[in-house]
Amino acid sequence: MKAVGIILAGGNNKRMGELSKKRAVAAMPVAGSYRAIDFALSNMSNSHIQKVAVFTQYNSKSLNEHLSSSKWWDFGRKQGGLYVFTPTITAENSNWYMGTADSIYQNLDFLKSSHEPYVVIANGDGVYKLDFNKVLEYHVAKKADITVVCTQLPAGEDPTRFGLVKMDEDSRIIEFEEKPVVATASTVSTGIYIIRRRPLIELIERCAQEGRYDFVNDILVRYKGLKRIYGYKMTDYWNNVSTMESYYRTNMDFLKPEVRDFFFNQYPDIYSKVDDLPPAKYNVGSKVKNSLISSGTIINGTVENSILFKKVFVGNNCVVRNSIILNDVYLGDNCVIENCIVESHDTIRANSYYCGDKGVKVVVEQNSRYLL
Amino acid sequence: MIKKEMIAMLLAGGQGSRLGVLTAKVAKPAVAFGGKYRIIDFPLSNCINSGVDTVGVLTQYQPLRLNTHIGIGIPWDLDRNIGGVTVLPPYEQSTSSEWYTGTANAIYQNLNYMEMYNPDYVLILSGDHIYKMDYEVMLNFHKANNADVTIATMPVPMEEASRFGIVVANEDGAIREFEEKPEKPSSNLASMGIYIFSWKVLKEALVTLSSQSNCDFGKHIIPYCHENGRRMFAYEYNGYWKDVGTLGSYWEANMELIDIIPEFNLYEEYWKIYTKSDTITPQYVSDTSFIEKSIIGEGTRIEGEVRSSVIGSNVTIGKGAVVKESILMDGVTIGEGCVIEKAIIAEDVTVGKGVNMGVGEYKPSTLDPRVYAFDLVTVGEKSVIPDHVQIGKNTAISGVTAPEDYPGGKLESGDAIVKDGDRT
User: Which of chain A's residues have a Cβ under 8 Å away from the Cβ of B275?
Assistant: First the structure.
């Protein structure tokens, strides 16, 4: 594909609560074996984009660890590759990224020195499968200046945390409202854009001159009358994990057979860093129902309607229900965990009881594991 | 200049004919083990964990699966600028082209490969054992003794010693004598087929014995070195070591992994075993399932009952099916309502609905009693088994089978179905 990829993974989100203390949202573990950014990276790799830049600034330790080698997504090439850009102090600039447009501006050399005619911009927190070649075909057919990938939110979901989009019959975007107070539509932007490289450089440079920093408000919303901005409607599964509720729900969606089949069995695959863990082990006393279990996990107790990430240990007589247990969690004997998200590397003492009565509860407990 | 202190030569060309239909299409080192591994992962992981980063893998019999598994060595961190893993198949030569006719002959044909790295020591390994071993400790032993040859040995029960190559050594490890499968063994130290040679000694022996037919380490090279007064030492190893050369020992070694704290523990942080993972998705366990005392690989979907079994990746076990004391390799599909007991089922086998495996009484095999001498059902890769058939104990199946292959819907104990074109 004649495009470079940009993944905006800078953000933290207050609505993620305690879970994003440790890591950028793009590094959130998803569906047992993955991290959020794997979906954007795999989609780009599977669309034959060879050169991808990830912009990140908030607590990027987890993300950097995850991206320490580019080979898992097949970006370890002589041509192209995977680049991670964090803000740096230069003679001209000593600021953090002040917005999405600013993060691109501060790394404009990456775009200037590329030769691919198009740029695919995506967020690091979307869970989806998309062939960007199809979006590009659409972009060319519509003679668009910018194409925004949109999706229809299912009934009952609150659209006010997204960018709301209204299109005319030709799918040209006539209204774009970022995180409105009152929702008047349910078609939202997924934060995935295609644009030609040179016009993008011009737009970003003009933004910077005018002291504007945000890609959505200062480019999409501001230029929607002037530029031909089109919406590409994605009909397959899409969700993002930027709030606690959506994070919990997106993970739980993987207990549905159609979602599992779409991501796990259908072509193409989603890739992730390989961890070299042994297979999951079920000892005497284990009772697992309707759950996803990842490698390296050892189960001695009851697990129902839950997602266990890698290297989890479930002690004797434990009961885990409707919960998400992140990587490398140790649950001592006789624990009861219901409606919870247990933060990674936690050690829960024996006989503990955690239950999210009203909504999902986040459990963060850093007991010393080897003194128990 | 290129220089490696010690390089490893890993013998992976053997068929392992006593694994029957399991090795009909793959070399023994490429046979799956423990849910997600292949046998060769153990020596390869031992190499990288011991700091040996140059490994020549000698292949000959059915190498496709081995080649794709090893690739450029990424899973073991053996993708190196200098060294790393190199697959060494037999090759045509201007004068005398030949297959690898023996273990030492295979090494001899690759003298050029070894010379490239200018080694001081060469480690000879075989690709068919399950164990964790630090070769660096063995090398230190070799150096401390100023040895020419060091042989890794382990104590075996005296009554079994006559099955092995036995080493008789002094207190300090200096070897006095060798006995190949002796009737009355005078020691219980068995050779493990792992050797460290000082490079010059190995080269001299290989060149001198180059015209020896079927030149073998145990039969020719080691006795030759002994006769010529080389300094030979026995390195005693006391950890877990399992030869998985027969169906029975292969099944047993797998079953040992599911103990609460197995003697051979894959869950330790120290000394990880690496493998190529094609699948990384989590496994799904449904409402209708029950799993106990089992290890289960990635991407597997379980709707039935699994007890005391080792299950690979991307396996599907249908509703109401019961799998007991069995080994299912990657991509196996078990239909609804099957009862599978004591079976070894190789990759991508499809078992229809309501099949009963492992029924009736044990009977000696009509196909090959040397290979099939256990109460196990063995199914070769990509086989298909039709709905509602009964399969007895000590049986073997290979190929796409249809209901007409089962007279009266049964395969009697001791019988076998091996379709044309499949070897055993």
Answer: 276
Residues in chain A: 372
Please report the pLDDT score of residue B165 as a whole number: 87
Kindly state whether A298 is in contact with chain B, defined as any CB-CB distance less than 8 angstroms: yes
Place of tokens 């409607």: A233
Measured between alpha carbons, how far is residue B192 from residues B150, B170, B241 in Å?
11, 18, 9
B38 vs A361: which has the higher pLDDT: B38
Please state, in angstroms and rounded to a whole number, the distance separating the CA atoms of residues A33 and A19. Answer: 17
pTM of the model: 0.92
At position A191, the amino acid (one-letter code) is: G
Euclidean distance between CA atoms B334 and B317, whole angstroms: 5
Q: What is the pLDDT of residues B62-119, one digit of tens each?
A: 999 999 999 999 999 999 999 999 999 999 988 878 899 999 999 999 999 999 999 9
Residue where the block lists tokens 């020719």: B220
A32 vs B35, B74, B282: nearest CB:
B282
Question: Best mutation site among A256, A258, A287, A293 for testing chain B: the one with the most B CBs within 10 Å?
Answer: A293
Average pLDDT for chain B: 94
Gap between the terminal Cα atoms of chain B:
47
CA-to-CA distance for B252 and B246, rounded, in angstroms? 10
In this structure, what token pair is assigned to residue A83? 């680049």
Q: Kind and range of the H or E element at A37?
A: helix A37-46
- State how far the alpha carbon of A233 is from the alpha carbons of A40, A101, A170, in Å: 17, 24, 12
Q: How far apart are CA A305 and CA A310, in angstroms?
A: 17
User: Mind telling me how many Å the CA of B396 is from chain A's nearest CA?
Assistant: 27
Check: CB of residue A139 under 8 Å from CB of residue A23.
no
- The dihedral through the CA atoms of A149, A154, A155, A159 has a sign that is negative
Count Cβ atoms below 10 Å from residue B180 Cβ, excluding itself. 12
Q: How far apart are CA A74 and CA A81, in angstroms?
A: 8
End-to-end Cα spacing for chain A: 54
pLDDT at A29 over 80: yes
Q: Got the DSSP string for A91-134?
A: SS--PPP-SHHHHHHHTHHHHHT---SEEEEEESSEEE---HHH
**Confidence (pLDDT) at A102:** 92
Per CB-CB distance under 8 Å, the chain A contacts of B287 are 289-290
Distance CA B281, CA B313 (A): 9
pLDDT in tens, A336-355: 999 999 999 999 999 999 99
B 277-296 residues with CB below 8 A of A? Answer: 277, 280-287, 289-296
Distance CA B259, CA A313 (A): 16
Residues of chain A found within 8 Å of residue B283, distances taken between Cβ atoms? 280, 292-294
Q: What pLDDT shows up at residue A60?
A: 82
Place of tokens 């075989």: B126
Query: A301 and B291 in contact (C-beta within 8 Å)?
Result: no
Residue B408 dihedral angles phi and psi, to the nearest 5° = 65, 20
Closest CA to B398 of B377, B381, B415: B381
Interface with chain A: mutation pick from B49, B258, B264, B283, highest number of A CBs within 10 Å: B283
Phi then psi for residue B280, to 5 deg, are: -125, 0
CA distance A288 to A314: 11
Kindly report, residue by residue over A35-69, the tens digit of the pLDDT.
999 999 999 999 999 999 999 988 888 899 999 99
**Which chain B residues contact residue A296 at CB under 8 A?**
267
Domains of chain A: 3-265 (3.90.550.10), 281-370 (2.160.10.10)
What pLDDT is stored for residue B261 in this prediction? 85
Query: What is the rounded distance in angstroms from the CA atom of residue A324 to the CA atom of residue B398?
Result: 43
User: Is A274 in contact with B282 (Cβ distance < 8 A)?
Assistant: no
